[in-house]
């Protein structure tokens, strides 16, 4: 993504896109839960109606990208800067895994991932994904609303932002030796963004546990923002008072600012954002403001300039 304008879209245009993709409820829950628990849970984990309702409310309006494509075309700099890091990423240890929730909260917590998943209302969300490099996909996540985790943490009134931290496994992540990068990978959102109903924590993908290359076992998904905001393989979510520093804004603040809302009218300093390329079909389509999610998120930025994604 980064400093050199490297368009990594050399992808075999093999896969046929499955239209009308949908997952059964059992498969969706199994994906989220990593198959770690038995069937007894399936009846109790979430209201059966929620996934169906959200599948309609968040209809991506275009076919889901083939899973092979989503599994093999990735950005995950801890494993290298090529799109083909999926093989290297298989070394990531996904278990045991725990997530720490701390900072300005009434209920700080370090919780094993399977326990967290059991407590959260698991559902499926099919979201458009838009990378700042001007490529896009359509991705069926399983997981839970970030707002459910905020509720669990009971933030204090002084908490204004959430800061996300990605795991650093020095022995499995060759990219960490690139010492000019400010590891660990960090991201952040405002409290209002975190509690917006679109903000999501994914633990599954295509009804399977989230794979390492896609940010397993748990990652952020913010579909109205450029993909770099959606930090992978989270180990910590801290509630803080001040806008937290972020990985990419440290490297290139005028290219990858804190807000990073998808906006076709604001070019990246080195390329246009007016169009995007759908990975898998190669189709070139116009980019939409907030990646087409303005109905949900535009009010969050009322009064801020339309050139918002550059603003720090
Ligand atoms: N920890 C971490 N998270 C990350 C990245 C990364 O390099 N490291 N890349 C980001 C970028 S630029 C994009 S486009 C998405 C890609 O997610 P995907 O590979 O699952 O499509 O992850 C984001 N999250
Ligand atoms: Mo990206």
Task: Describe the fold and architecture.
With 312 residues, this protein is an alpha+beta fold. The chain has a single domain, classed as Oxidoreductase, molybdopterin-binding domain (Sulfite Oxidase, Chain A, domain 2, Alpha-Beta Complex), CATH 3.90.420. 18% of the residues lie in helices and 21% in strands. The chain has helices at 25-33, 49-57, 67-72, 86-89, 113-119, 146-153, 191-194, 247-251, 294-297; strands at residues 98-103, 109-112, 123-130, 135-145, 161-166, 186-190, 200-205, 208-209, 219-221, 234-240, 275-278, 284-286. The strands form two sheets. Strands 3, 4, 7, 8, 9, 11 and 12 form a seven-stranded mixed sheet that branches. It has a five-stranded mixed sheet with strand order 2-1-10-5-6. The longest helix has 9 residues, at 25-33. It is globular. It starts with 24 loop residues before the first helix and ends in a 15-residue tail after the last helix. Residues 1, 75, 131-133, 227-228 line the site of molybdenum atom.
What portion of residues is helical? 10-25%
Helix/strand class: alpha+beta
Beta content comes to 15-25%
Mean pLDDT: 86
CATH superfamily: Oxidoreductase, molybdopterin-binding domain
Unreliable sequence segments: 2-23, 33-48
Q: How many helical elements? A: 9
The appropriate CATH architecture is Alpha-Beta Complex
CATH topology: Sulfite Oxidase, Chain A, domain 2
Any idea what the shape is?
Answer: globular
Distance between the termini: 19 Å
Question: What is the count of structural domains?
Answer: 1
């Amino acid at each position: 993504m980064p400093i050199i304008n490297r368009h990594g879209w050399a992808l075999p245009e093999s896969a046929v896109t499955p239209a009308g993709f949908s997952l059964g409820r059992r498969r969706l829950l199994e994906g989220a839960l990593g198959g770690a628990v038995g069937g007894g849970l399936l009846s109790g984990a979430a209201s059966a109606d929620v996934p169906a309702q959200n599948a309609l409310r968040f209809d991506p309006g275009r076919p889901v990208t083939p899973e092979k494509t989503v599994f093999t075309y990735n950005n995950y700099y801890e494993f290298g800067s090529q799109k083909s890091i999926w093989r290297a990423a298989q070394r990531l240890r996904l278990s045991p895994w725990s997530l720490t929730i701390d900072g300005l909260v009434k209920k700080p917590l370090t919780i094993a991932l399977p326990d967290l998943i059991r407590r959260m209302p698991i559902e499926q969300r099919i979201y458009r994904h838009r990378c700042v490099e001007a490529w896009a996909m359509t991705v069926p996540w399983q997981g839970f609303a970030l707002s459910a985790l905020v509720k669990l943490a009971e933030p204090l009134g002084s908490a204004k932002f959430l800061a996300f931290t990605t795991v650093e496994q020095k022995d499995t992540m060759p990219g960490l030796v690139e010492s000019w990068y400010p590891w660990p990978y960090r991201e952040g959102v405002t409290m209002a963004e975190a509690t917006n109903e679109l903000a999501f924590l994914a633990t599954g993908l295509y009804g399977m546990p989230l794979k390492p290359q896609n940010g397993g076992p748990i990652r952020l998904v913010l579909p109205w923002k450029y993909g770099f905001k959606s930090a992978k393989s989270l180990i910590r979510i801290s509630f803080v008072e001040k806008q937290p520093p972020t990985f990419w804004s440290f490297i290139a603040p005028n290219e990858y600012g804190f807000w990073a809302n998808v906006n076709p009218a604001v070019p990246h300093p080195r390329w246009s954002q007016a169009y995007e390329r759908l990975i898998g079909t190669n189709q070139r389509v116009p980019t939409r403001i907030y990646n087409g999610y303005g109905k949900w998120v535009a009010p969050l930025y009322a009064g801020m300039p339309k050139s918002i994604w550059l603003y720090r």
